[in-house]
């Protein structure tokens, strides 16, 4: 059985005081949740403050990106040891916004995945096709390229720490969710790919989140699909009550 994992990707929202208030409210609302793993991914500058507020709760802490070198003259970057030092256990890698606006490629995703794993951080590796790619029938080719490239050279042991997030780019922030059937189709395809690359045990154990306009009113239906093991939530994770409702789907 795969424990569902629901993560909030706060993107570039909240100053420190807002981040603390949000997680303080959330902590109380989900204090009795034990059957779902909950993670929040605030902006870098709030990680430490949020970690303090989270003391004594089961909510995990994640970052939204990581650089692949441990340290050095890389102005503006944040490394895996730094994330670990503020209490992160997860890190989102290869989000479509990073691919679109910041030149992320499958190759750099792969480097970041190795950097995260080397510090014991669990990568949440994002994949997803654009609307143009879907409409021209390339969805499965794109997902395959992103999975094969992003997870290249990982061992079965390393893969045990990886979470995948399928986020169709056309569903992110648009209010246009993939239908449960559309999402399930791609999730099953990803699991089949994992089976081909890492074998059946890994494929069956790997959690694959869906992301893209997940809201309280569509979470249950999405999460009841056999290959959907949680959600990566953007907008709806910025309000404690809507994120709570998704967590309690
Ligand atoms: P929305 O939930 O705002 O569509 O964002 C999804 C996302 O990109 C999570 O990483």
Description:
With 249 residues, the protein is of the alpha/beta class. The protein has twelve helices and eight strands. The protein is globular. It binds 1,3-dihydroxyacetonephosphate (13P).
Keywords:
globular, 12 helices, 44% helix, eight-stranded parallel barrel, TIM Barrel, binds 1,3-dihydroxyacetonephosphate, alpha/beta, 249 residues
In short:
It is found in: Cytoplasm. By secondary structure, the protein is α/β, with parallel strands linked by helices.
Q: What's the structural domain tally?
A: 1
Low-confidence stretches: none
The secondary structure category is: alpha/beta
Span of the ends, CA to CA: 17 Å
Binding site for substrate: 9-11, 173, 213, 234-235
Family: Belongs to the triosephosphate isomerase family.
Pathway: Carbohydrate degradation; glycolysis; D-glyceraldehyde 3-phosphate from glycerone phosphate: step 1/1; Carbohydrate biosynthesis; gluconeogenesis
Keywords: Cytoplasm, Gluconeogenesis, Glycolysis, Isomerase
What is the element layout, followed by pairings?
Blueprint: E1 5-9, H1 16-29, E2 37-41, H2 47-54, E3 60-63, H3 80-85, E4 90-93, H4 96-101, H5 106-118, E5 122-127, H6 131-135, H7 139-150, H8 156-159, E6 163-166, H9 180-198, H10 200-205, E7 208-211, H11 216-223, E8 230-233, H12 240-247
Parallel strand pairs: 1-2, 1-8, 2-3, 3-4, 4-5, 5-6, 6-7, 7-8
GO biological process, one term: glycolytic process
Function: Involved in the gluconeogenesis. Catalyzes stereospecifically the conversion of dihydroxyacetone phosphate (DHAP) to D-glyceraldehyde-3-phosphate (G3P).
GO cellular component, one term: cytosol
């Amino acid at each position: 059985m795969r424990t569902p994992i629901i993560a909030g990707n706060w993107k570039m929202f909240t100053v420190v005081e807002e981040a603390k208030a949000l997680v303080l409210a959330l902590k109380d609302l989900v204090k009795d949740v034990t059957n779902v793993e909950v993670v929040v991914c605030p902006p870098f500058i709030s990680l430490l403050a949020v970690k303090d507020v989270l003391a004594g709760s089961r909510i995990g802490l994640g970052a939204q990106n990581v650089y692949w070198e441990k340290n050095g003259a890389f102005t503006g970057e944040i490394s895996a040891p730094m994330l670990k030092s503020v209490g992160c256990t997860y890190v989102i890698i290869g989000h479509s916004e990073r691919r679109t606006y910041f030149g992320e490629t499958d190759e750099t995703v792969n480097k970041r995945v190795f950097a995260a794993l080397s510090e014991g951080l669990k990568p949440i590796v994002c994949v997803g096709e654009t609307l143009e790619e879907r409409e021209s029938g390339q969805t499965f080719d794109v997902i395959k390229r992103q999975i094969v490239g992003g997870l290249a050279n990982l061992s079965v042991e390393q893969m045990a720490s990886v979470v995948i997030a399928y986020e169709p780019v056309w569903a992110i922030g648009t209010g246009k969710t993939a239908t449960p059937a559309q999402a399930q189709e791609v999730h099953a395809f990803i699991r089949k790919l994992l089976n081909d690359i890492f074998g059946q045990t890994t494929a069956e154990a790997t959690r694959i989140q869906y992301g893209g306009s997940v809201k309280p009113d569509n979470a249950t239906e999405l999460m009841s699909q056999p290959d959907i093991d949680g959600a990566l939530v953007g907008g709806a994770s910025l309000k404690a009550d809507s994120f709570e409702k998704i967590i309690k789907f």
